[in-house]
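Subject: for your reference before the review

Hello V.,

The reviewers asked for a structural picture of the protein, and I figured it would be easier to keep everything in one thread rather than splitting it across files. Below is the amino acid sequence we used in the manuscript, unchanged from the supplementary table.
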Amino acid sequence: MKSVNIKLSLAENVKNFVNIVSRYGYDMDLRAGRHVVDAKSILGIFSLDLSHPITLEIYSDDCEDLLEQIKPFYA
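And here is what came back from the structure prediction:
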């Protein structure tokens, strides 16, 4: 499992982020405090407090290609 902090401050960023992570078959969650949502769910992401960085948890060890694609969202 890998974890990275990301920042999704604009609605357009959320849409682009979901389009990227939805291409990958492994599970991913976003964690903001004690709230956890599916990283591929636009509605779930909007239920989080996006004014602060959130943690992306990727349940795969072979995810270097995904990490490269989401670099613009790193906090």
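For the response letter, the relevant points are probably these. The CA atoms of residues 4 and 40 lie 16 Å apart. DSSP finds three helices and four strands in the chain.

Happy to draft the paragraph if you're swamped.

O.
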